[in-house]
User: Fold this.
Amino acid sequence: MQFFATCARGTEGPLRSELAALKLKHLHGERGGVAFAGDLEAGMKACLHSRVAMRVLLELARFPAPDADALYEGARSVDWTEWLTARTTLAVESTLRESALTHSGFTSLKVKDAVVDVLRDKLGERPDVDSKAPDVRIVLHLARDEASLSLDLAGEPLHRRGYRAVTAVAPLKESLAAAVLALGGVELGLPFLDPMCGSGTLAIEHALRARRIAPGLDRAFSFQRWPRYRGGWQSIWDRMKVEAKAGELTHAPAPIVASDYHPKAIAAAQACAQAAGVAADIRIEKADARDARPFAEAGTICTNPPYGERIAGEQGGRSRSLQLGGLYRGFAEALERFQGWDAVLLSGSPLLERELKRKPEISHRLWNGPLEVKLLKYRIR
Assistant:
């Protein structure tokens, strides 16, 4: 089976390293993800353990699709009875690039028609469409008139771990937080501090990683609703979960502290840490980042400083920039107290680099949703 794990732009490297550590085979990095091959257990393993991936897709077919008829016939050539029944709900989503067919809604409809026609011919009944929570999500990728049809093993995107019941302003996706920790080389055995924690995503992801808690352990996946799941795959999945649970640590190996100046952020971080099962591993407190002080000889400060929205609300751009500059200046001064520590920062503003007045050891471009940001790593010496 051929798989493709998708990820945010700029995080392909840590995703490839992560999949290699899981001993998945035939890895090939591409823009927006990493391809790999194996049996279905390989795809399940990626769903269970990957912290950086957004989706895991199983490719079913690849064929030329220069027009609507070719797309329909190619989709109709797949034996969909292996993956759906007449009682299975489905949805089709399309991404198109440099192709004659340019309307994603139309291409999704053509694939849906082909799937439904195959099942009606073979089973005498047709399945229903459920665009919000389908049993089977079919993904069409059409680039330069070549189509690939895949099944989404996860259903809900993998960054939705299930612990985010409450959020602060502009929450960081869990998968991007995991990528920041990996790219920044944040060490699990050293103290960790996020002094602008928001809803606590960086600290929670660090705690989950430090305790070896599989990110997909407590959530459901789309492949569990496939008809073939109960024919043998369920026992494999159950075994994988038991093994993952057995590998967990009872507590994080080093102190983890998360703080924020805003009471709503503190409440959100506490609720999310509790839901994630790591509340006992993280000390969450109200504090100003500009007053931060080291609590050990060495460790890592890892944070996603606000880009301006949380500083000045609806005020004008100049006022926001002035306040943002003041926060960054105070934070830069606080960092000087952390001699012997590393700082891993997700920067959404060039003001931050200017105020730090240091050359980063790592400067890596990432995308936080549509925003281009930088991962910066400094050694405070």
About this structure: Residues 104-123 form the longest helix (20 residues).
